[in-house]
Write a structure and sequence with these properties.
By secondary structure, the chain is an alpha+beta fold. The protein has two domains: 303 residues, Beta-lactamase; 35 residues. The protein has ten helices and eleven strands. Strands 1, 2, 3, 8, 9, 10 and 11 form a seven-stranded antiparallel beta sheet that branches. Helix 3 crosses helix 4. The longest helix is centred in the last third of the chain and has 33 residues. The chain is globular and about 65 Å long.
Length: 361
Amino acid sequence: MARPTSPAPPPLDPAKAAVGGPALATAGLVTPSGAAEPPKVTATSWLVADLTSGAVLGGCGPHEYGVPASVQKLLLAAAVLPHLDPKQVVEVTESDLDFEPGSSAMGLVRGGRYTVETLWLGLILNSGNDAANVLARLGGGTGGQAGGVAAMNAEAARLGAHQTHAATPSGLDGPGQYTSAYDLALISRACFAHADFRRYAATKTAEVPAQPAINAKGYSMLNDNQLLHRYPGALGGKTGYTDLARHSFVGAAERNGRTLLVTLLGAETQPARGWEQGAALLDWGFGLPADAGVGQLVAPARADSGNQVSSPAAGATRVRSDDRGFHIDWLLGTVGTIMLVGALLGLLFYQRRAARRQVGR
């Protein structure tokens, strides 16, 4: 059977192709000067970055358009996870189970009642398209599932992921759906900034509770991301596949105090599977000097200014975030603002006091 044809994405804006640094505006390979040759992979585009500092260590066509498949679920998590209570119990509806027959699912049943946390685990471990529909419906509020997809696109814009557009919450192929290896890194970094996501991504097995009211048994789920099971220091990530997208992959791992992220699109399974290609690229990244880099993952706060940096050094400030998403640079800016306001109020108080003294004379 012939492979489906990918719909044409919008023309690549040269300014957006340079987001993160001018060296990233290439359809080919970009690596630090003097670095060892990266491993040969079948992925059509890829990127390796430092998850903590945001430094891009290397890539191939990092801003080239690609089809995401189920790594799109990470955008759903970035957009919706911070706004949902993991303990909330949700009842599954018939429309939640409307997705492509035979595609990946966690096994939700109509009328079943599940916690949001169980849904996130089903989304990450089993790539549940059913879970994606429910979570998008919840995150979309009155807009329902369509509102959830709109929230995903709004989050992509906020993150500076200008080459990403979601048409489905699950990553199942939809019209005008695309992303890039660079955008996936921005989205993944936003996900890993949340403790709940890190916990879900690192979970190897989870239990789905029985539904006595509808006579449905409980069962176990196994994380299908082999990086988590077979790569030392793995923190998890997400796998993806459709006939159109081929294999996509996101993975993160920690080694010797460094945490690296790899994203790849358009891979084939021979001679190595997607996660194995990701593992090889992570090995290559860990072998680079700590200060190596060819660009930077831009911060969300800079999204409105185009997110362009002139060189890796220009974006080398370390960004640290706690589970609420507060950043050190944000904190410093806030402290400075408070000091300035305090000084102005002090001056105003002094002037008013002086005026009262002048009136009393």
